[in-house]
Amino acid sequence: MTVVNFRQLEYFLAVANAGQITAAAQQLHIAQPPLSHQLKQLESELGVQLFRRSPKGVTLTPAGKLLRDYAQQLVDLRERANSQVRSLGQGLAGVLSVGVASSSLGATPNSKLQTLTRHYPKVQIRLFEDNTYGLIDRLDKHLIDIAIVRTPFTAPGLVTKALTTESMVAVVPKKYDHFAGATIRVEDLADVPLIIYRRFAQLFQTTFAQKGIDPFIACTCDDARTAVQWAEDHMGVAVVPQSVAEAGSGLATNIRPIRYQPWRTTLQLVWPAAVTPSPLMQRFIDSY
């Protein structure tokens, strides 16, 4: 049976990241021969070559690249486990891994969270940015503790806490801003090129079909901030949550609220229902 210990994984990651055994040995504060021995022992135990060695250093083989991903996950999980065990019953110290959707501008940090970290300076927050479904996948794999995501999404087995609900708005470059009023209707979008955030593509398409309009979708992107930037560059009209528009738009565009109630979205704090929040995690939840 193959037995790989955490020290070997840490040594392996150090060499993989440094690209040189000598540099990694210096970072680890050990001599080079013991480090080389540990690497060879790891390769022997796994039965594969992990590095290609050359006078200039080392590079990872395909097997080495795969192990690097798993090793990093294992080392991170061990650190999280150690941290949570130490802070059990107190919640005064430790590391909390928090997923943040790119469109959740302004939700973190809030004033209560700032107060929490000020009173408990040993609390460390690790942020992981991704789209909503990427964060839900991380929660499912226990790679993060909790996440701030945006509706709509389907994910059974999660506890949810609603944070803020907001409407969609149009970020309109001045060359397309021929709308009569400060607010616009969905039908007004039929005659301008649209830039949409992929998370809401299905919602928008369903609405357009119901209203019998077929607007031109000039661009679909994975980050609402990118949609705003493209609107700023006169590539079309971006349809995004209001908070994202207000944070990212500039002098080149105007923000027009859209008069359509179903186009609303809610930021939610989510975590696995099967997981009992640690004291630190509960403090974080209570800060919202």
Automatic annotation (TrEMBL):
<protein>
    <submittedName>
        <fullName>Fhu operon transcription regulator</fullName>
    </submittedName>
</protein>
<comment type="similarity">
    <text>Belongs to the LysR transcriptional regulatory family.</text>
</comment>
<dbReference type="GO" id="GO:0032993">
    <property type="term" value="C:protein-DNA complex"/>
</dbReference>
<dbReference type="InterPro" id="IPR005119">
    <property type="entry name" value="LysR_subst-bd"/>
</dbReference>
<keyword id="KW-0805">Transcription regulation</keyword>
<keyword id="KW-0238">DNA-binding</keyword>
<dbReference type="Pfam" id="PF00126">
    <property type="entry name" value="HTH_1"/>
</dbReference>
<keyword id="KW-0804">Transcription</keyword>
<dbReference type="InterPro" id="IPR036390">
    <property type="entry name" value="WH_DNA-bd_sf"/>
</dbReference>
<dbReference type="Pfam" id="PF03466">
    <property type="entry name" value="LysR_substrate"/>
</dbReference>
<feature type="domain" description="HTH lysR-type">
    <location>
        <begin position="4"/>
        <end position="61"/>
    </location>
</feature>
<dbReference type="GO" id="GO:0003677">
    <property type="term" value="F:DNA binding"/>
</dbReference>
<dbReference type="InterPro" id="IPR000847">
    <property type="entry name" value="LysR_HTH_N"/>
</dbReference>
<dbReference type="GO" id="GO:0003700">
    <property type="term" value="F:DNA-binding transcription factor activity"/>
</dbReference>
<dbReference type="InterPro" id="IPR036388">
    <property type="entry name" value="WH-like_DNA-bd_sf"/>
</dbReference>
